[in-house]
């Protein structure tokens, strides 16, 4: 089903790492992903989450596409748990922001995107030492471009819609008779 029209609107692609968050965006037609910025992680103050919220506002993003690091066998390990935690903080920030509470967050499989980003940077002639400052953006571009291409090809968004942490059952108090 090639030639399917994708939703129009800018999206943000996110590569969440241990030290940095790479961010990419796309054109208003959802065709081409481009690098935007690399943010430093702030595990305690969540400044990186607030900066992504500001980028969602600035670019009027209709969706945030976040890479979910899976093991080669498809399972999720500690890195995926950290990404889900980061998405939970972003969901809370979006929910409290006027007009952005319904902005979807999608998780897409990002196996080997950082490896592919390093390969691409090396092939472009960028010295290995310089990779660190841009590799997260390059990985975010790969994540977002895969999502854009898939949606254009199939008409369906790529990945899993992030709905937050699993709901907990409310505790019921026993009635005394």
Describe the 3D structure:
By secondary structure, this protein is an alpha/beta fold. The chain has a single domain, classed as YqgF/RNase H-like domain (Nucleotidyltransferase, domain 5). 38% of the residues lie in helices and 19% in strands. The protein is built from 5 helices and 6 strands. The protein has helices at 47-59, 78-96, 113-123, 128-131, 135-154; strands at residues 11-16, 20-26, 33-40, 63-68, 105-109, 160-161. A 6-stranded mixed beta sheet has the order 3-2-1-4-5-6, sandwiched between helices. The termini are far apart. The model has no long low-confidence stretch (mean pLDDT 83).
**Helix-residue proportion:** 25-40%
Number of strands: 6
Q: Determine the N-to-C terminus distance.
A: 64 Å
Please tally the helical runs, counting DSSP H or I stretches of 4 or more residues: 5
In the CATH hierarchy, the architecture is 2-Layer Sandwich
Strand order of the largest sheet: 3-2-1-4-5-6
Can you tell me the number of structural domains?
1
- Percent of residues in β-strands: 15-25%
Overall pLDDT: 83
Q: Which labels suit this protein?
A:
alpha/beta; globular; 6-stranded mixed sheet; Nucleotidyltransferase, domain 5; single chain; 6 strands; 177 residues
């Amino acid at each position: 089903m090639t030639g399917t029209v994708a939703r129009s609107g800018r999206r943000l692609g996110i590569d969440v790492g241990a030290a940095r968050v790479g961010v990419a965006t796309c054109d208003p037609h959802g065709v081409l992903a481009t690098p935007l910025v690399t943010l430093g992680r702030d595990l305690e103050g969540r400044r990186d989450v607030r900066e992504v919220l500001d980028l969602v506002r600035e670019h009027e993003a209709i969706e945030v596409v976040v890479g979910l690091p899976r093991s080669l066998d498809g399972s999720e390990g500690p890195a995926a748990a950290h990404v889900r935690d980061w998405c939970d903080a972003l969901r809370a920030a979006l929910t409290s922001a006027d007009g952005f509470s319904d902005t979807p967050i999608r998780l897409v499989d990002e196996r080997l995107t950082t490896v592919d980003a390093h390969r691409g940077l090396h092939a472009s002639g960028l010295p290995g030492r310089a990779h660190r400052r841009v590799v997260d953006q390059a990985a975010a571009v790969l994540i977002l471009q895969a999502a854009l291409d898939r949606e254009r090809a199939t008409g369906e968004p790529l990945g899993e819609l992030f709905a937050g942490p699993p709901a907990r059952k409310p505790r019921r108090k026993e009635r005394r008779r």
